[in-house]
Amino acid sequence: MIERKKIQSLEFERMSFGYEWRQDLLHDITLQIPLGKAWHVEGPSGHGQTTFLRVLAGLSTPTSGAMVINGENVTEMSFDEFLPYRLDLGYTFQSGGLLSNRNLAENLALPLLYHKLSSLEQAEAKISAYAERFGFVKQLDQRPAFVSAGLRKLVSALRTLMFEPSFLVMDDPFSGFDQQTAQALVKYLHEVWESGFVKTMVFTSADSAYVNEFKASILRVENGKAHLEEKAAA
Amino acid sequence: MVFLLRQADHLGAQVFDFFAYVRTLFFMVYLSLRSGLFEQTQGMRQVLSVISAQIYFTGWQGLPLISILAIATGGIAIIQSSTQLSLLGGSAMVGNILVLVIVREVGPLLTALMVIARSGTAVASELGNMKVNREIEALEIMGIQPLSYIVFPRLVGGVISVVCLSFYFNLVALVGGFFVSKALHGMQLSFYFESLANAFAVEDVWLFIVKSVFSGLIIFVLGCYQGLSVQHSSHEVPQVTARAVVHSIFAVTGFNLIVSLLSYLNQLVRLGIL
Q1: Segments making up each domain of chain B, as ranges
Q2: ipTM of the predicted structure?
Q3: Average pLDDT of the segment spanning B92-106
């Protein structure tokens, strides 16, 4: 079993990132993200909030500069070298992310079984508990194509949370749900936040009500730059 | 003059691109085998389930089509060859013809073409859609190396399937060939199998294995590479699928041709003709 490395510090050093069609989306960002807080990523649409989250989650590699975790430059690390940090760094997608040829239960169980974090029986018990709590027991054996988009997004988020990452990155996690499911997810996130296994949360959301729920401070991404505004979002 | 220089420049760029492409494919095979065999400290059971699914889809579900192709090919080969040979009084050479045509050449090639049509396309489009739906990124986020969970099992399952299907093709074609021979010429079972046994050489087995293993590898490497090369949207999926098929057909037929040529050159050298 791979031992996860707890994230003690995370910073960017002169980090830039761009796509072929937009080279300077994030430019020369030097920033240390204080841990133990919730951060709401704000900024005008199209200024790279999602891209910032992707770089933060290790899904996109900076084109220059570095991302430094616990004093180690992780930018040049191979997949296996980065894996111990990856297991402590959760990311939920704005959409998609479930394996289409596996049913919901198999999707939820995959990381637990692959990394031998649980036995099959433990994983099944854990998944049943989640399904009962969020009301999708009957859909557990369905493939993602046969359930609603909201349920797909919920299962994708739960799969990340089952990993119990201490650093959680979420891209617009509360949209696309009915009110009841969104509230259930917020309640669960509160629980994991208070239980302490999630220590730092960085997320985007168009709905300020959810931002206030977590008393999130603002991390502004605008014109290729990112900076922290310690005051809580309005 | 300028036109010729431009053409030469264009041709040179294409040659460089081709070698870069081949190098990337070799690198992908190396990384996925290394990742699957040597760095796979966990999740082997999950990887094995993907391998068995690949064998099921490519091997097991391909059996009906291969059976029809094999019976038809075996029948045609035996009808044509036995008719001509009996006119020349060489019926005993039936085994040689079948081994040469079916086991060495047609079996591995037709099987590979059938697998390209069924599974090469399936793998390229499946992986392309997985890329568009962020499933590959989801694996990375879960700490699962896509090369070991996606590519490695498809290569292994694909190669096993192609070898087994080629073997099955040969078996069905040779047995089917016997029944056609029996119906046409009243050929005895013992005579037929004696003719086949006399015709078989160790070299035939090696040729069969080399052709089947590398054809399987070529098909699934190209399918995986093209599927994973999708960048942004679903409109790229049919494009990469078509490219996977075309490249696979060129590569497999070219590889089979080269191996056959080398084998016959070797024979000529051994016979002292070259």
Answers
A1: 44-261
A2: 0.90
A3: 85
